[in-house]
Structure formats: structure tokens, C-alpha cells
Amino acid sequence: MDKRFWICGIVVGAAALILGMLVHGVLLRADYQAMAALYRTQAQANAHAAWILPAYLLLGLAMTWLYRRMPASDGVELARGARFGLAIALVSFVPWHMLAFVAQPLPLSLMLRQVVLDLVAMVLLGMLLAWLQPHRRVLAPPP
């Protein structure tokens, strides 16, 4: 795995962290606070917060690795990246939220918002990957 892989993976991981904070820390914060009894206390959450960075780094690196497994394209194809992000969401976040809904007493409206917002975030991450072009081996375009 070359330098470009690591840079793209770290950038996508950082973007995923920012989107995760926006979705779950800002947009859905009031919903989570209303059901605080279902979650860890603030002190417990703070004690486990160190797991957030490696989780998002792993997400960024895994998405980059999978994207590089696809055939290379001639340039930036944002629609292709969006489709990739959609596929990743459909095999990860979407079923995860649905299964959590089954196992935890969460409102259907919250699960649906989680699904939609995380799906949008993953599509944006796929588009970011397409823009970063992790297949490209050189920084300058060929003549």
C-alpha cells in the first residue's frame, strides 16, 4: 500500500469523523439525549471515547482499499463515487441501524433519520473518494 492509499484513507476517515459528529453529535443529539437511559452515562462514554478515532480511521482505510479494488477510471467520476458510497451504506450503516432498532427500544422515526443521514454521509464519502482518485499513481495528470 503506497503513500496515496494512506493519505486518501486518512482524509476519508477524517471526513467520516466530521460527518459522524454532524449527524450524531448535532443533528440527532436531542433524540439521543431524550433516551439517555438507553445509553452509557456521560462519564462512561468519555472513558470509551478513544475508540472513536480508530473506528473512523478504519472506515476511511477500508473504504479506500475497497475503492481501489474497483477498475480505475480516466478521471473524477463523482456519480461512480456516489454509487460506491451508497453500496457501502447498504452493507453497513443501513442494516446496522435496522438491527439496532430491533434490539433496542428506539423510536422508528429515529431509526429512519439515522438511516437517511448516514446514507447521505456515506454517499458524500464515496464522492470524496472519487474526487481524491486513490487509483492515481502520480500527482500530476498525464500529458
TrEMBL record:
Keywords assigned:
Membrane, Transmembrane, Transmembrane helix
Q: Which residues cross the membrane?
A: 6-28, 49-67, 82-103, 115-133
Name the UniProt record assigns to this protein? DUF1761 domain-containing protein
Q: What is the lineage of its organism?
A: Bacteria, Pseudomonadati, Pseudomonadota, Gammaproteobacteria, Lysobacterales
Top-level taxon of the source organism: Bacteria
